[in-house]
Design a protein that fits this description.
The protein contains 19 helices and two strands. By secondary structure, the chain is an all-alpha fold. Strands 1-2 form a two-stranded antiparallel ribbon. Helix 4 packs antiparallel against helix 5.
Length: 428
C-alpha cells in the first residue's frame, strides 16, 4: 500500500514539474481550447437530439454528421499546406469565427438539405483549428514535457466537454418553459454555446505567433516524399482509419442510444456525458505514466482491446445502470490512447513532416466517419443499436492487431522508460 502511495505521489510530482515547463503560448492555446471545447460540447451533445426533436430520422442525422466529416477530409491537406504560409493566430481566429457561425445557422435554419452544406463548412473550420495543434505543440515544447502537453490538451478539452455537457443538458429543460418549447430551448442553448466559443478569440489573439519559419517553408509535401515515406504513412493511417470507421458507426449516436433505448431526457444525457468525460480525463491523465511504463504502442493497443467487453455490454443490455457503467469505462479506455497516438505519430517522423502527417491522420479518421456515420444512421434506423455496436467491436479488434503488427518493434526500453527508434525504424 505504501509503495502505491509513493508511486501516486511521484506521478503527481512529475505532472506538477512538467506543467511548470509549459510556455506562454501553450498556456494561451489551452485557455482558448477550453472555451472552444464548451462550444464543441453543445454541438456534440445536442445536435442529434435537436434534429430528432424536429422529427429527423437517424439516416438524415447521419448525413449531417457525414457532411462535417467530408468537409474535414477535403480540407485536411490544403489546411496543412496553408499552415506553412499563414500565422497560426490567423488560422485560429478565422476557424473559430466560421465554426461558431455554423453552429448558429445549423440550429436556426429550417431543417432541410441546406443544413448539409452548413455542416460541411463547420467541418472545414474545425479542421483548420485542429490541424495546427500538433505542429504547434511540437514547436512550443521540449521533449521533456511534450507528452504532458499533448495529454493536457486532451484533458482541457475533456474538462470543457464535462462542464459543457452538464451545463447545456441542464439548460435545455430550463429554457423550455421560458422560451415556449423544446425546439426554441435548443436554439437558445446553441446561441449560448456559440457565444462562449467566440470568447476564445481573446486568448488566441494574445498568442505571440511569429511569421512562418524556414522550417515551415521547408515542410515537404512533394510526391517524392510521399513515395519515399508512403509505407510508413499508410501504417500510421490504416489502423486509425479502421478504428475511425468503427467509431463513426456508433459514437455520434450514443446520446440517441440513451434517449431511444432508455427514454432519458436531455438533462440526464448531459449528466451521463459529464461523468463519462470525467472518466476520460482520468484515463488521459494516466496515459503518460502508462506509456512510460509500458511504451506508447502497448498502451494504445491494450487499452483499446480492454474497451471491447464494455462495447459488447452496450450492444446487448437493456439495464440502464449496466449500460451507463459500460459507457463510462469504454470512454475512459478508448480515449486514454488518443493523445499518446498523436504524440507517437509526431515522434516517428521528422520535423518537416509534422504538418503533413497530422493532416493525414485527420484525413484517415474523418474519411472513415464520412462513410460510417451515414451507414451507422441507416443501420440504427433499420436494425437498432446492437448490430452497429458489434461491427464496431470487430473493427476495434482489427485496428489493434494492425497497430501492434506495424509498430510493435518501434520502441526500446531505456532506464527512464521507452524511447522510439528514429524515423520509423523497426516498423514492419
Amino acid at each position: 500500500m505504501n509503495a502505491i502511495c509513493v508511486r501516486i505521489a511521484n506521478a503527481i510530482r512529475d505532472y506538477a514539474q512538467n506543467l511548470r515547463l509549459f510556455s506562454r503560448n501553450v498556456r494561451l492555446y489551452l485557455s482558448g481550447s477550453f472555451l472552444v471545447g464548451l462550444t464543441f460540447a453543445a454541438y456534440m451533445l445536442l445536435l442529434n437530439l435537436y434534429l430528432r426533436e424536429q422529427g429527423s430520422p437517424e439516416s438524415f442525422i447521419g448525413t449531417i454528421l457525414s457532411a462535417g466529416a467530408v468537409g474535414t477530409s477535403v480540407i485536411c491537406i490544403p489546411a496543412a499546406l496553408l499552415l506553412r504560409r499563414i500565422r497560426l493566430k490567423r488560422i485560429l481566429l478565422g476557424s473559430i469565427l466560421v465554426y461558431c457561425t455554423s453552429i448558429v445557422l445549423l440550429s436556426h435554419l429550417p431543417v432541410g438539405h441546406f443544413l448539409v452544406v452548413i455542416s460541411f463548412f463547420a467541418g472545414v473550420a474545425v479542421t483548420f483549428y485542429r490541424v495546427a495543434a500538433a505542429p504547434f505543440f511540437m514547436r512550443n515544447t521540449t521533449p521533456r514535457e511534450r507528452t504532458f502537453v499533448f495529454s493536457a490538451s486532451f484533458g482541457v478539452s475533456l474538462i470543457a466537454s464535462m462542464l459543457g455537457s452538464l451545463l447545456f443538458g441542464w439548460l435545455v429543460p430550463q429554457l423550455a418553459g421560458l422560451s415556449g418549447g423544446m425546439i426554441s430551448a435548443y436554439q437558445w442553448t446553441f446561441l449560448i454555446g456559440a457565444a462562449l466559443g467566440l470568447l476564445a478569440l481573446i486568448p488566441f489573439g494574445l498568442i505571440r505567433a511569429a511569421d512562418p519559419s524556414e522550417d515551415n517553408g521547408r515542410a515537404d509535401f512533394s510526391f517524392t516524399l510521399l513515395k519515399q515515406r508512403l509505407g510508413l504513412y499508410l501504417k500510421l493511417i490504416v489502423p486509425y482509419f479502421v478504428v475511425g470507421t468503427g467509431a463513426g458507426l456508433i459514437i455520434p449516436f450514443l446520446n440517441l442510444y440513451f434517449r431511444d433505448r432508455f427514454g432519458q431526457p436531455p438533462d440526464k444525457i448531459g449528466l451521463f456525458y459529464f461523468l463519462v468525460h470525467g472518466t476520460m480525463l482520468l484515463g488521459i491523465m494516466a496515459g503518460p505514466v502508462l506509456s512510460r511504463r509500458f511504451g506508447m504502442v502497448r498502451t494504445i493497443v491494450w487499452t483499446q482491446l480492454l474497451s471491447i467487453p464494455f462495447m459488447i455490454v452496450l450492444a446487448y443490455t437493456y439495464s440502464l445502470p449496466l449500460a451507463f457503467f459500460a459507457f463510462l469505462i469504454r470512454g475512459a479506455l478508448m480515449n486514454l490512447g488518443q493523445p499518446i497516438g498523436s504524440n507517437f505519430s509526431m515522434e516517428l517522423v521528422e520535423k518537416h513532416e509534422h504538418a503533413l502527417v497530422n493532416a493525414l491522420m485527420m484525413l484517415g479518421w474523418n474519411s472513415s466517419w464520412m462513410v460510417s456515420a451515414v451507414i451507422g444512421g441507416s443501420l440504427i434506423e433499420r436494425h437498432g443499436y446492437t448490430l452497429p455496436l458489434m461491427i464496431t467491436v470487430g473493427l476495434y479488434i482489427l485496428s489493434s492487431i494492425l497497430y501492434y503488427f506495424f509498430f510493435g518493434n518501434t520502441e526500446h526500453r531505456t532506464h527512464s522508460g521507452y524511447s522510439i527508434l528514429p524515423h520509423g525504424e523497426g516498423t514492419r
